Amino acid sequence: MNKRVTIKDIAKMANASVAAVSMSLNNRPGIGDEKRRKIIEIAKKTGYQPSLVAKALVNKRSYLIGLIIKDISDHFFAELAKGVEDTAKKYGYSTILCTTDGNSKTQEDYFDILCSRGVDGIIISTVVAEDSQIAFLIDEKIPFVCINRIPLIPSLKKKAEYIIMDNYSAGYKGIEHLWKLGHDKIAIITGSLNASNARDSLKGSKAALKKSGIKIPKRYIKEGTYSYREACLICERLLKSKNPPTAVFAHDDNMALGAREAILRSGLAIPKDIALMGIDNIKTGALAGIELTTISQKKYEMGAMGVKILVNRIEERVPHMVEKIVLDAELIIRNTCGYQMHGYRR
Amino acid sequence: MNKRVTIKDIAKMANASVAAVSMSLNNRPGIGDEKRRKIIEIAKKTGYQPSLVAKALVNKRSYLIGLIIKDISDHFFAELAKGVEDTAKKYGYSTILCTTDGNSKTQEDYFDILCSRGVDGIIISTVVAEDSQIAFLIDEKIPFVCINRIPLIPSLKKKAEYIIMDNYSAGYKGIEHLWKLGHDKIAIITGSLNASNARDSLKGSKAALKKSGIKIPKRYIKEGTYSYREACLICERLLKSKNPPTAVFAHDDNMALGAREAILRSGLAIPKDIALMGIDNIKTGALAGIELTTISQKKYEMGAMGVKILVNRIEERVPHMVEKIVLDAELIIRNTCGYQMHGYRR
DNA sequence: AATATATACTGAAACGTTTCAGTATATTTA
DNA sequence: TAAATATACTGAAACGTTTCAGTATATATT
């Protein structure tokens, strides 16, 4: 670090006290116009930039927020991160990027680091979000908001703020769509079932299955880990089995794309021979030649709203009440399920 | 922020001086085994976490690095960011994410903020990287490394560390590949020509054109801004013109994808009717049904190497010399140029 | 035994801010 | 005109660390 000009230097130059400089620069009252003007001028001329670290130390406000996600190269998280960073910037906060790669230990380390760094708040959107870690945050009284997942333990859930999609309804709508298109041999690749969102989606799908009177064998439901490769493998095995499904509903677009690879490799055509559906609505899915039918997740908006809530919480501008936001699940019909070919059959 | 346990509290409990606690915890010599043990034990028991902001203030080392990029939802930058964050984490640094959206003012603001925050170093990989801002960093003596772009002014270029792909060769190889496949009506969509990488690629392409004796009209070369939409529009116009190209070489995969949309919408088949080629090798390009022929950019590796260089610089473990790394451009042949159909024709 | 040296430990200053309790001066009020 | 009040300004403490100069005690050297 360079020798930067400090408040003391300015005080000397303006022959004023450091207090006067501080007050002038933060336009607090109690300093005469003449002196204030002079101080501000000197500050400008010398290119003075206040040390945010010193400020953080005394004010106990760092204007830093931590963003904990699984993987920034995953389109879902990248869009989310964009919403977070854009909004944080708007409110005068900087964003510390923390990726865990789904590793619980890494995540725990990051919680410690973020606390040590005195972040003002945290946005959490990971698959593995141990409830114990959430409890830690509540304990340390660090504001946080969960995006796209909620604590499993009810007592924690009550205290946590979150924004989620209506995952139940997402899972439900997907099956409903496939059913209306005439499918009844539907395979499901779920997310990691240790997280609330994946569980809810599965519940929704099961409910829809029941509602439409579809019975599927147990082996049609497979737990994935949001990995492209793994979903590809799962789908491959499914297709090779004696009684293969005629539709696969992956509870995440990345996995749907993985399944897509397996389907295409096996020589089947989408949607002619088999229907494919995802959840998330990532950019790639919209590309010509892919045109994945999916359920929209408002990724950017979730990130943006998350920060808004967080900042309200931090600055306590709003009388505090715990926000719990559930966004609507919206079906995005494209080409992978056959709606364009023949419309709904029932 | 919560009332956290500080070094003072521990000193009191262990009845030692704060100095003793500090020295014990940082295993500096000068403290007896017995006392040290006791202090460490108390620290552990109380869950003491040092305040990184206080440390930063006295040590003038924040263990923070700034990452300045255009847009985290762009796959290129996301991969880069992943390399950066992973590596930073490994070295004990945290990453502040700064996206500029190509806005020079935003970028300048971020430079100021990062300085105020006392970051130890900066990784820069933006399109608009004004040389004046680079000069500012050199002036402030903040270590930085440029990724995928270099300062235009030679005197700055000399002082800056950077990692770039051999953009010239990338531009060259693309044209060469297309020429070998028999194309001579090749359109080029370049990046923003105010940045070094785009200029170099264009130079390379022009050189290859000359070498192979291809003459293309001026209107075949269009400056893009790395935007999908814009590239789509540019390509659309190109296709509608009287003498449309038989190949388009976008100097960035996103733009290639944009061009792809225009091509497909116009009813042309890739690669049967027209060849398409990009630069970057983003994940999406590898998907079945897209299979974009491209030139590989080692995005993750560039990020990782960038941090490595930066940390060496910060910690001055290595006798200082300015690193300038140029990575090889590697042609990735997939399906959009017709190599699989008929191989090289000349 | 006297001196030199090593070891264990402490108090206080420093990092760059903000804020609080005071002080001095100017202005208003009665 | 005296008292009350408002305004301008300052010194010092505080935030949570590290480090430096000392001090006290123990050990080694002659």
Structure description:
Chain A has 346 residues and is α/β, with parallel strands linked by helices. Chain A has 3 domains: 7-50, 434 Repressor (Amino-terminal Domain); 62-166 and 299-328, Rossmann fold, CATH 3.40.50; 167-297 and 331-342, Response regulator (Rossmann fold, 3-Layer(aba) Sandwich), CATH 3.40.50.2300. The first copy, chain A, is 46% helix and 16% strand. Chain A has 14 helices and 12 strands. In chain A, strand 8 (247-250), helix 12 and strand 9 form a beta-alpha-beta unit. The longest helix of chain A is centred in the C-terminal third of the chain and has 17 residues, at 299-315. The interface between A and B is large, with 55 and 55 residues. Chain A binds a DNA duplex (30 and 30 nucleotides) through residues 6-8, 16-20, 22-23, 26, 28-32, 35, 50-51, 53-60.
How does CATH name the architecture of the largest domain in chain A? 3-Layer(aba) Sandwich
Residue-averaged pLDDT of chain A: 93
- Whole-number count of domains of chain A: 3
Give the tally of β-strands of chain A: 12
Radius of gyration of chain A: 26 Å
Enter the CATH topology name of the largest domain in chain A: Rossmann fold
If interface size is counted as residues with C-beta under 8 Å from the partner's C-beta, which chains form the largest one?
Answer: A-B, 55 and 55 residues
> What letter string, H or E per element, gives the SSE order of chain A?
HHHHEHEHEHEHEHEHEHEHEEHEEH
- What shape does the CA trace of chain A take? elongated
CATH superfamily of the largest domain in chain A: Response regulator
Number of helices of chain A: 14
**Helix percent band of chain A:** 40-55%
The largest β sheet of chain A comes out as: 6 strands, parallel
- Detail the poorly predicted runs of chain A: none
Helix vs. strand class of chain A: alpha/beta
Determine the oligomeric state from the structure. Answer: homodimer
- Approximate strand percentage of chain A: 15-25%
Output the strand order for the largest sheet of chain A: 2-1-3-4-5-11
CATH class of the largest domain in chain A: Alpha Beta
Distance between the termini of chain A: 69 Å
